[in-house]
Each structure stands twice: as structure tokens, then as C-alpha cells.
Design brief:
Layout: H1 5-22, H2 26-33, H3 37-45, H4 52-62, H5 68-73, H6 87-99, H7 102-116, H8 118-134
Helix pairs in contact: 2-3, 2-4, 7-8
């Protein structure tokens, strides 16, 4: 599946900003990610989908957390490697799961599968369903029925 031009440009801009922040040349980003310079260039400038292995290599080379390329393509920000989630982000994620429609949960599972793999996506879905069934607040207690 092709990536639209605006998403590709957004990715290229984010990659370039991160590369400059790290003080790296494109060839160094490719080398640190474990891919060829040509593969990196195709990811930045091409029109076809970026394979998961290439996305992970870009993230390694730019010291982004796994899933950052997908996040940027979706219009969100990349997450620098090692950055802990803030309490508010965790609460926001929990609320998104609790308020999601079944189709939205399936879409979320697809993103998890793309980022982390099928096994983790299955685990995400099992936990999301359990959370919704229990009305979990995240601390193991159920929401009060009012």
C-alpha cells in the first residue's frame, strides 16, 4: 500500500530534524540502523509502503522508540529512545481503549502488530478486552457503576 505524499513528507521532515539533532549524516543513520543508504533514501523519498524491518532500522538509526515511524506517518510525534511514558499519556491511552468502538480496537491491534508483531498484538487485544469487560481504572479496581 502506498503512503500518501503528505505523510511521506512529514516522515522525511521528522527524520531530517532528528538526524540534525543527533549530528549525523544520512549514511551514519543508515549504518547505525543496519540498512543500506539506498534503502534509507527510498524510505524517505519513495512512494511505496515501508516494510516493518526498514521501519525498525530507521528507528534504530535515529534512536527513536519502536513504532515511531508509524506514529509520524499517522500525524503524531516520534518518541525518542528511552523516553518513559508520562502518567497523563498512560491515562489517555487507557481512556482511548475504554471508549473505543470494536472497529477502533481492531485498528489499534493492527498498529501494535505492525510495530511490535503478532504476539504482542494478540496480548494487547486480550488485555484491552479484559480492561473493557472489567471497566478497569488501571489500578486493578473496577469503575463504580453510577
Amino acid at each position: 500500500m502506498a503512503i500518501d505524499e503528505s505523510a511521506r513528507q512529514r516522515l522525511d521532515d521528522a527524520m531530517d530534524a532528528r538526524r540534525l539533532d543527533l549530528g549525523l549524516e544520512w549514511r551514519e543513520v543508515a549504518e547505525q540502523g543496519g540498512i543500506s543508504y539506498e534503502t534509507l533514501r527510498a524510505a524517505r523519498r519513495g512512494t511505496s509502503n515501508i516494510p516493518t524491518k526498514t521501519r525498525r532500522a530507521i528507528e534504530r538509526g535515529l534512536r527513536w522508540s519502536p513504532g515511531s515511524v508509524t506514529e509520524v506517518l499517522a500525524g503524531r510525534q516520534p518518541v525518542p529512545e528511552g523516553r518513559a511514558l508520562m502518567t497523563g499519556e498512560i491515562a489517555e491511552g487507557r481512556e482511548r481503549i475504554l471508549s473505543a468502538t470494536p472497529q477502533q480496537l481492531v485498528d489499534m491491534r493492527s498498529v501494535v502488530a505492525d510495530v511490535l508483531g503478532k504476539e504482542e498484538a494478540d496480548e494487547f487485544m486480550a488485555r484491552a478486552i479484559a480492561m473493557r469487560e472489567q471497566g478497569a481504572t488501571g489500578d486493578g479496581t473496577a469503575r463504580s457503576a453510577s
